[in-house]
Write a structure and sequence with these properties.
This protein is α+β, with helices and mostly antiparallel strands and about 120 residues long. The protein has 3 helices and 6 strands, in the order E-H-H-E-E-E-H-E-E.
């Protein structure tokens, strides 16, 4: 098992690989993001984790950025280059935000689709 040194880590990217996302290029999204990170030599700055379902199946493919708490929906493999470039420069990426974590709680944007309530 690998032990990562997170001393220089700035971003943790969670990439949904649940069944709905997998049917909509999640594997390609995962590979594209990881390839961009590697090509730009940003492995110490950006860490990725492949997850199972994040509960936003209607938003497939879902990518979550921490510690920022930004959830991206409808992520495509073609978004990877711009996404990683933005992270490397510390600037916001795109208009794909579905939730934003701020002041210790999630703030919904106007265009956010509400999910299914947990019981």
């Amino acid at each position: 098992m690998a032990t990562w040194n997170f001393y220089e880590l700035k971003h943790h990217v969670l990439i949904c690989n649940g069944s709905s996302c997998m049917r909509n290029e999640a594997e390609e999204v995962t590979r594209s993001i990881r390839q961009e990170i590697s090509q730009k030599g940003l492995e110490n700055m950006i860490h990725t984790t492949r997850t199972r379902c994040n509960g936003r199946c209607q938003d497939k493919c879902v990518v979550v950025l921490y510690p920022e708490g930004i959830w991206y929906k409808h992520f495509q493999p073609s978004d990877a280059s711009s996404f990683v470039e933005a992270l490397s420069k510390g600037i916001p990426y795109g208009q794909k935000v579905s939730h934003y974590y701020q002041n210790g709680k999630f703030q919904r944007t106007d265009h956010t689709v509400k999910g299914v309530l947990k019981k």
